[in-house]
Amino acid sequence: MPNSQPEVEIYRNGELIITAGRTIDPAAIDLLKRTIYGTKGIRYQHTNQETKIHDLAKPLFFHLRQAGQLIGTYCLDERTLDMGSVETTGFYGRYLAVDEAHSGNGYGRLLKQQAVAYVEQHTSSPFLFYSFIEGKNARSIAISQKEGFQSVATLKTYFFRRYSPTQDNRFSLATAADLQQIQALLRGFYQSYRFKTFGQIGYQHQYFVLKEKGQIVAGVQANPVTWRFYQMPGVMGWILMNLVPLVSASRRFFNPARNEFAVLEGFFFQQGRPDLLPVLLESVLAHYGLHSAMCEIDQLDPLVELLLHPSMGSLSGFEKDVQTHVLVKPIGLPEQVFDTKSPVYVSCFDYA
After folding, report:
1. How far apart are CA 161 and CA 177, in angstroms?
2. What is the pTM of this model?
3. How many CB atoms are located within 10 Å of the residue 288 CB?
4. What is the pLDDT along the chain (352 residues), one digit of tens a residue?
């Protein structure tokens, strides 16, 4: 669908209508702003969706309306993916939301079904759909599997933390010239990875580097985000929601009303220099005045072992019992593209 083309109707059933278009309805942005994610366990809310929505490279928005009123939305964001052995078009599913007053009617599933069907009808193969779904969201996973999606990787959630971060004197913001070099460095660093997309490297001028004698020796994309938490499971969840915010020392790591942290992607460090990673990440926290940074990482990623190293700090670590599946529906792609054990590259722009 060309960027200039207006919304087109792709589904109608009585008063229910679904349209597809390149521009998001302002009512859909309002819906996303008040959407709380999660049904059991953790329930949370994103912020700053409007800015990120307008920074999507090639989005296709789907709007569900009932009697003319918007009650649901979904987005498939198109991009080129480097799968290691082949490049292909990928459609990343995000921003699924249904008005709370209309939940429980299967409208989320209907939106995804119609969106996938529409793209299949209007896109030449090969291509693929993919999304990240938390392992505890069994219902969404089951629905996706019925629609032909399969899990090709499992992600783990990692938090890097410092109580009083300090900034290294080698630390700086990447320049425009640096970013050109970084793209080449990242292609080499992540050569064996699948689902590579470096389109958000340098987003909002937030790629940072360590330099020695003018040479880039380490780098990372770090985007500050703010989430609001409404519910955490279990006894520990109750403590986090009700007691931790009362203590200033612990509130710097978790404040449910306004939890501020950085999300990470595009790690790079010179071969044989993994010691640069904690220095770089601590400098990022000091730069932003934050105390936590998060990344989603494939459990097969060789970086997992480095993130577990004592130099990352006793406050850092992987979240227990939190797993996210990479669910994929390939169209016209050979099976061997997905049979490989190569790790998946994860862009923080896609999940935060």
Report:
1. 30
2. 0.92
3. 18
4. 555 568 999 999 999 999 999 999 999 999 999 988 876 677 888 888 888 898 998 999 999 999 999 999 999 999 999 998 899 999 999 999 999 999 889 999 999 999 999 999 999 999 999 999 988 877 788 888 888 999 999 999 999 999 999 999 999 999 999 999 999 999 999 999 999 999 999 999 999 999 999 999 999 999 999 998 888 878 888 888 888 888 888 888 988 989 999 999 999 999 999 999 999 999 999 999 999 999 999 999 999 999 999 999 999 999 988 899 999 999 999 888 887 789 999 999 998 8
In angstroms, rounded to a whole number, what is the distance separating the alpha carbons of residues 182 and 176? Answer: 10
For residue 261, the tally of other CB atoms under 10 A from its CB is: 24
What is the DSSP track for 134-186? Answer: ETT-HHHHHHHHHTT-EEEEEEEEEEEE-SS----TTEEEPPHHHHHHHHHHH
Dist CA 137 CA 130 (whole Å): 16
Structure tokens at 262: 């950085």
State whether 313 and 179 are in the same domain: yes
Phi and psi at 210, nearest 5°, equal -110, 135
Place of tokens 């960027």: 3
C-beta separation of 200 from 258 below 8 A:
no
Of the candidates 119, 44, 34, the one whose C-alpha atom is nearest the C-alpha of residue 70 is 34
Residue 157 sits at φ, ψ, to 5 deg, of -105, 125
Q: Are 161 and 253 in contact (CB under 8 A)?
A: yes
Asked if the bond preceding 126 is cis, omega within 30° of 0, the reply is yes
Domain coverage including residue 102: 8-153
What does the chain come to in residues? 352
Residue 2, in any domain of the structure: no
Residue 50 and residue 129 in one domain: yes
Facing residues of 330 across strands?
128
Question: What is the distance between the alpha carbons of residues 137 and 109, in angstroms, rounded to a whole number?
Answer: 14
Domain check: are 227 and 189 in the same one? yes
**Three-point CA angle 230, 233, 238, nearest 5°:** 70
